[in-house]
Amino acid sequence: MLRETLARIAGFFGRRRSLEENLEAELRAHLALAAEDKVRGGMSPEEARRAAWREFGGVEQTKENYREQRGLPFAETLLNDLRYGLRMLGKARGFTVVAILTLAIGIGANTAIFSVVHAVLLAPFPYPNPERLAIVWSVYGLEGRAPAAGPELVYLRDRSRLFEEFGGVWAQSGALTGEREPEQVKVGQVTSNFLSMLSVKPQLGRFFRPEEQGFGAARSMILSDGLWRRRFGGDTQTIGKSVWMNGNSFTIVGVMPANFRIIFPEGSSVPPEMDVYIPFPSDLAKQPADQGYIRVIGRLKQGVTFEQAQSEADEMAAQLRAQFPAFSEEGLKLRVVPLHGDVVRNLRTALLALFSGVGFVLLIACANVANLLLSRASQRQREVTLRIAMGATRGRVIRQLLTESVLLSCIGGAAAVLVGAWALKLLLVLRPQEMERLGTIDLDLTAFGFTLAISVIAGILCGVAPALRATRVNLVESLKEGGRNVPGAKHDSRSALIVCEVALGFVLLIGAGLMMQTFAELMRVNPGFAPDGVLTFHVSAASGKYETPEAATEFFRKLQKNVAGVPGVDSVSVVSHLPFDESLPNWYSYYWAEEASKQEQNTVMADHRSVFPGYFKSIGASFVAGRDFDDFDIKEGRAVVIVDEVVAERAWPDGVAVGRKLNIEHKISTFESGRGGVEVVGVVKHVQSHSLTNRVRGQVYLPYTQAVRPHMSLTVRSNTPPETLVPLLQAEVAKLDKDLPIYNVQPMNAYVEKARRETRFTTALSGALALIALLLACTGIYGVTSYSVQRRTNELGTRMALGAQRSDIFAMVLREGMLPVVVGLTLGLALSFVLTPLMAGLLFGVRASDPVTLAGSGAFLGGVALLACYLPARRAVRVDPLVALRYE
C-alpha cells in the first residue's frame, strides 16, 4: 500500500508529458501488433486496423483507466475541472461579474454578522477557566439582580464547598493629584483575589496580597495599562512609587495587561475599563448587612455544575437569613448564573434574529445565482449533450458543473471578505453599549474559515439544481438540428426559486417594518424630562477635605450658586445619579407608607436620588403635586422627600401623597444609614432612568443633607454652545478647589441617545438586510421574466401574427411573472406568523402580527415586483411578428 501510494504521488508530480507520450506510444504499438496479426490471418490492412480498434474498445477510456492507476485521479480531474471552469467563467464575463457581486453581498453580510455573533455569543471570555466563572446576584422580593453586602460576600467565601473562590468589585471614582494636573479616574475597589481570578499575571509587578485588604492595611494600587502609559509614560520604574488619590497616598504595586477588561453584565454599574484598582479599605465582615453594593463573582470547582452551585447557594441564603436579621426581614435569596450567559442575555435575541436575517439574504442570493445558472445551462445544452454523447457519465458532467459553481462561489467569497470588513466597520459604529463591554470585534481566522465554509455550501446550493437539470437530456432530440428549441431548464424551476426569494424577502421586510415602527415609538417616548439644552458633568468631592457632611454640603451649595451666575446659564442643580448614566453604582432600597402593615413592608424598591433644589427645573421635569426642595430644607436638614408618581400611586392608592409619611432609607454617609418616616412635599412625573421602554423602579428624591454623596453630577440648562460653556464651568470648579477636575462632560441628549442605541442597531441592520433582499428578489423576478420573454420571442410573434392583441400578450406576461410572486407572498405571510413572534422581545409599541406592517410590507414588495415584471412585459408587446416568423 505504501509503495502504491508513493507511486501515485510520484506519478501526480512527475513528468506528465513524458508519461503521456509513453502511454500513446504503447497504445499505438499494441494496436499495430494486433493489426499485423490480422493481416497475417488474411485481412487487408484497412480491415485489420478497424478490427483491431474494434476489439480493443475505447482508447480514451483505456487512457483514463491507466491514469487512475498512475497518479491521484481525483486531484487531477479536480485541477482539470478548475481550469476548465475558469476558462468558461472568463468567456461569460457579464454573467460572472453579476454572480460574484450577488454572492459577495450575501456571503459578506453573513461574514460580518458571524464575526459579531462569534465574538459576543460563542467566544469564551479572556479569563482563566472562563466556563467556570459565575456571577452571584442577591434577590430581594421583585429585585432579582441586587449587589451583595460585605458580610454576605465573606460568608460565601468562608462556607462554600463547591466554589474555589469568590471575588468582589465596587466601581467608584477618584481624583489623582500631585505633580501633574488633577485627573479624575475610575476606581475599582476589589477583594485582594479579584484581579488574579480574571488574569494570569500583571504586566508589571504583582497582584494584591490578602494582608493589603481591610481596615488599617497599607494602601496599595494597581494601574491599568492606559493610565500607566498616559500619566506615567509607560515607565517600568513606576512600581514602588507613591501616588496621591482623594488626599491619600497609595503605593503602586502592579500594572495590568493592555488587553485586560472587566466584562460584567449591563446594569451591574461596573465599567469594563477601570483606571486604578485598590483593595477594599474596610473590614467587609463588619459592615452593615443591609448595605449591598458589591458585585460578586465566583469560580466553580472542577466538575461542579451550575445546578449544584445554585442548590448550595439556596442553602447558604437560608443560613444567612437565620444569622442576620436584615437578610431575614428583606427575604434574601441568592441566584447563581454563568458570567458569560448573563453578560450576553440582552444581546442574544437581537443577534440571533440578525444572523437568521443574513441567512435569508444568502439563500435569496443563492436562488438568484441558481436562476442565472439555470439560464446559462440552457445556453450550454448542446455542449452538455455532446459530452454525454462522447461517453461522459452524467455524474462526471454534474461534478464538472458543480465545480464551476463552487469555484464561482469561492471567488464571491473572496470578494465577500472585503464586503464583510466594510460591513463590520458599520456594525461597530452602530453597536450598543452592551456590545462595547466585550472589547474588540474583528475578522479573524474563525471568520475566514466560516466564509470559506459557506462559500462552498453556497456554491453547492447554487449549482446542484442547474447541474441536475442540464444533464437530464434526450440525446436523440438534442442532437437533432433543431435541438436549440429543446429547453435545458424549464420555467417551473426558475419560478420555484422566485417563490422562495419572495417568501424570504417578505419575512425580512416584515421584520424591518416592525423594527422601524418600534424605533418610531421609541423616538416618541417621553423620558419624563426635557434633555435639549442641558449640559451635564461630574464632580467628586471624595478627598479628606470633604469628609464631613457639612463640608461636602457647603462645597456643592457654593458650586451650584457660582455656576448659576455664569452668563447664559438659565438654571443649575446637583444630583447623585443622572438618568441613563451607569458610571456609578445605582442606589435603591425598600419603601412603604408609614401606615403600611408588616406584610406590605420590604416588598417594593425604589431608586434613591440625592438632589439640590432646582434639579427638576434644570432637567425639565414637571410636578404633579406639591413643591420642590428649597434652601430652608437644605439648611435645616429637614426630613422631607419628593417622590415620583409610581411611588405615590403604589404607597397611597387614594391619590393623596403630599403631607403623608414615607418610610425610606436615607443615608448620611457611605456606610452609615438610617431608616424612618419622612414627609412627602412633592410628587413629580416619572423619569425614565434605566430604559426608555419600561419603568424599572419608582424614584424617591432626598435633599442632599439627608443623603450626602461624594460623587455628584451637575445639570446646567443653557442656550450657550457647550464648547463655550465648558471652560467657564471648569473655572468655577477650580475657584473652589483646584484639585478637583470635572469629567464625563456631555449633553443630556447623549444619555438619551445611548438608551436608543440597541434599538437603532437592530433597526438599521434589519432595514439594510430587507433592502438587500428586496433588490435581490426583484432582480431575480426581472431576470426570470425577461429570460422567459426572450426565449418565447418566436411564440409571441406567432400569437400576434395569428391575431392576438398586444394587451392580451402584455396581460399574459404580467400574469405569468406575478404568479410566483403571489405564491411567494402567501408562503411568506404564513412563515411570518411562525417567525415574527420570536422578535417579541425586541419590539415596543407594536405587535409581532401587526396588520398594518403585514399589509404594507406585502403591498410594497408586490408593487416593486409588479414593476420588475412590467418592463419585460412592455418589451414583449414590441415584438415584430414578421421578424419573429422569419426567425422561426
Question: Which percent range describes the beta-strand content?
Answer: 15-25%
Using DSSP, what is the number of strands? Answer: 23
Described by strand count, sense and barrel closure, the largest sheet is: 8 strands, mixed
Number of domains: 5
Which word captures the global form? elongated
Overall residue-averaged pLDDT value: 86
Query: Could you say which structural class the secondary elements and strand pairing correspond to?
Result: alpha+beta
Number of helices: 29
- The end-to-end span amounts to 62 Å
List the helices and strands and how they pair.
Blueprint (H helix, E strand, L loop, with lengths): L1 H12 L2 H25 L4 H12 L2 H12 L2 H19 L1 H30 L10 E8 L2 E4 L3 H10 L3 E15 L5 E8 L3 H5 L5 E2 L14 E4 L1 H8 L9 E4 L2 E8 L20 E4 L15 E6 L5 H18 L1 H6 L1 E7 H5 L4 H32 L1 H9 L4 H37 L2 H4 L8 H26 L4 H5 L11 H34 L9 E7 L8 H16 L4 E7 L12 E3 L1 E2 L11 E7 L3 H5 L3 E4 L4 H6 L3 E5 H7 L9 E9 L2 E13 L13 E6 L7 E8 L3 H15 L6 E5 H44 L1 H9 L4 H30 L15 H26 L4 H7 L1
Parallel strand pairs: 4-9, 6-8, 16-21, 18-20
Antiparallel strand pairs: 1-2, 1-10, 1-11, 3-4, 3-7, 3-10, 5-8, 6-9, 7-8, 12-22, 12-23, 13-22, 14-16, 15-19, 17-20, 18-21, 19-20
Helix pairs in contact: 2-3, 5-15, 6-13, 6-15, 6-17, 13-17, 13-19, 13-25, 15-17, 19-25, 19-27, 19-28, 20-24, 25-27, 25-28, 26-29, 27-28
